[in-house]
């Protein structure tokens, strides 16, 4: 099954990066770390 994040972002006309967090806990940790790096840098 392909990722849906880009399709949803396009439908919402978002102007920001998008990625799927579909790996349960590992995906959550990845998203949390990415968000922290974007906010704290």
Rg, please? 12 Å
Largest sheet: none
For the secondary structure, the number of strands is 0
What is the N-to-C succession of helices and strands?
HH
* SS field, number of helical segments: 2
Mean pLDDT: 80
Helix content: 55-70%
Describe this structure in words.
The protein is mainly alpha-helical and 41 residues long. It has one domain. Helices cover 59% and strands 0% of the residues. It is flat, with a radius of gyration of 12 Å. The mean pLDDT is 80.
Q: What are the salient characteristics of this protein?
A:
41 residues, mainly alpha
Question: What's this model, at a glance?
Answer:
By secondary structure, the chain is mainly alpha-helical. The chain has helices spanning 5-11, 24-40. The model has no long low-confidence stretch (mean pLDDT 80).
Topology diagram in text:
Elements: H1 5-11, H2 24-40
């Amino acid at each position: 099954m392909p990722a849906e994040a880009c399709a949803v972002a396009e439908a919402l006309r978002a102007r920001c990066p998008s990625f799927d967090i579909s790996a349960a806990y590992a995906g959550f940790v990845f998203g949390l770390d990415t968000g922290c790096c974007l906010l704290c840098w």
